[in-house]
Amino acid sequence: MRLVLLGPPGAGKGTQAALLSEKLGVPHISTGDLFRANIGEGTPLGVEAKSYIDAGKLVPTDVTARMVKSRLAENDAQEGFLLDGFPRTVEQAEILADHLTEQSLELDGVLNFRIAEDVVVERMLARGRADDNEETIRTRLSVYHDETAPLIEHYGDRIIPIDAEGEVDEINARAMSALGK
Ligand code: ADP
Q1: Which end of the chain is more exposed for a tag (fewer CB within 10 A), N or C?
Q2: CA atoms 137, 16, 60, 101: torsion sign
Q3: Where are the domains of the chain?
Q4: Could you tell me if 8 and 120 are in contact, meaning their C-beta atoms sit under 8 angstroms apart?
Q5: Fold (CATH) for 2-178
Q6: 74 alpha carbon, distance to own chain's centre
Q7: In this structure, which residue's CA is closest to atom 19 in ligand 1?
Q8: pLDDT in tens, 139-165
Q9: Ligand 1 midpoint to CA 24 (Å)
């Protein structure tokens, strides 16, 4: 299955993606995780991405798209993938669509994890990642509203809404059943 996961920062996409990845047998490809791995290893891409991530801003699309395309070219992603964190803008969605079309591939769906804003702020403050301070969280939520939320309309009837409030297992069960599994 080729799926995109959407939702505000802190919606628990990463947690759900890890579970879905295991159950569906396709890799979880998280742009946030890829960036953090590059930052940890001190690669040029990591050095470039770090200042944007620390400020809660989007990393430039050319850098991000190059990283995603090269990850999608790896062996384990040939039969499917769960894309978490990409696309984050309509421009990125168009890049992904072109990339898949070039290979005569299509997305099977877009899971949209829905959650109230006060719950996501609470979750992010609780997990305490380096970019999870109040100022950065505010910036990321505003970037989400301005740049990422329009993807819901962009994807239209390919959107599969998932209620992302509640227990991890409960949310996973909702996602599996929405996928007909
Ligand atoms: P969250 O879902 O909590 O926002 P992520 O791990 O998905 O966290 O992303 C962390 C940061 O990585 C983002 O705030 C942004 O700076 C950068 N990032 C991730 N995905 C993208 C993307 N598709 N385009 C640009 N920047 C991105």
Answers
A1: C
A2: negative
A3: 2-178
A4: yes
A5: Rossmann fold (3.40.50)
A6: 18
A7: 32
A8: 999 999 999 999 999 999 999 999 999
A9: 24
